[in-house]
Specification:
Helix content is 36%, strand content 0%. By secondary structure, it is mainly α.
């Protein structure tokens, strides 16, 4: 019987394969919700209104547009590439 060439990667792969075959099967994943059961997307609020949900705002709000333009001008003054909020 001829000697097999030394191949440590194949030896490691065969050891890991035999270990994996002895492991129990993974549990079945839970069913994903249907579109009727999914929650509705969060609402957006104007920046001038108090937001009970979090930091989501309407970027078409005039106050937000003004803040974005101010920030772009500040970035351009510093020599940075202005971030486009679109």
């Amino acid at each position: 019987m001829p000697n097999k060439p030394f191949n440590p990667l194949a030896d490691i792969a065969s050891i890991l394969g035999s270990i994996a075959q002895r492991l129990p099967d993974l549990p079945k994943l839970p069913e994903l919700p249907t579109s009727a059961e999914r929650p509705s997307p969060p609402q957006t609020y104007h920046a001038s209104e108090p937001n009970p949900v979090g930091p989501r705002v309407d970027v078409l709000d005039p106050l937000m547009i003004e803040q974005m333009e101010t920030e772009q001008k500040r970035q351009a003054k510093q020599g940075l590439v202005p971030f486009i909020y679109e």
